[in-house]
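Deliverable D2.4 — example input (structure tokens):
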């Protein structure tokens, strides 16, 4: 299968179902997408081999883990040379509270999503972790009030 052009409607149905219920048994998946089990299994393997499915993951409940607050942080670095960008990105990857981090265009250099336990947990994260990473000139933060949509990946 080629990138996207190789996906037919059945492939898309398989991806949509697996995106929500990755632990479904093949028989159940086949029933949901209107195939018999053998062709369904073949299609799933083909989607995996072609790179459409990277992995199967458990989405953890942040609140149950004591990290019920999501904070979006925008960061501007004091320098923009390759070394600084690489070191800052590596440092972010090592911080356990960081759920996602993006190098971006625009007013800020990085968009970072973190999970913390309230304002005290966020203050601790800033003081003990993020602000110890060298090179930050400015940051701006917003607490997420409510998650309206969360998808790991869209299906065209």
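Example output (designed residues):
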């Amino acid at each position: 299968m080629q990138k996207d052009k190789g996906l037919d409607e059945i492939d898309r149905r398989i991806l949509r179902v697996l995106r929500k219920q990755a632990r479904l048994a093949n028989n159940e998946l086949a029933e949901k997408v209107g195939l018999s089990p053998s062709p369904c299994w073949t299609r799933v393997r083909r989607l995996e081999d072609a790179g459409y499915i990277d992995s199967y993951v458990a989405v953890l409940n942040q609140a149950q883990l004591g990290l019920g607050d999501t904070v979006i942080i925008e960061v501007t670095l004091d320098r923009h040379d390759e070394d600084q960008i690489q070191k800052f990105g590596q440092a972010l990857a090592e911080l356990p509270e960081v759920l996602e981090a993006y190098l971006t265009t625009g007013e800020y250099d990085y968009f970072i999503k973190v999970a913390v336990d309230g304002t005290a947990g966020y203050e601790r994260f800033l003081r003990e972790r993020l602000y110890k990473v060298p090179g930050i000139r400015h940051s701006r933060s917003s607490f997420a009030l409510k998650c309206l949509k969360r998808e790991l990946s869209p299906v065209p």
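The longest helix spans residues 37-49.
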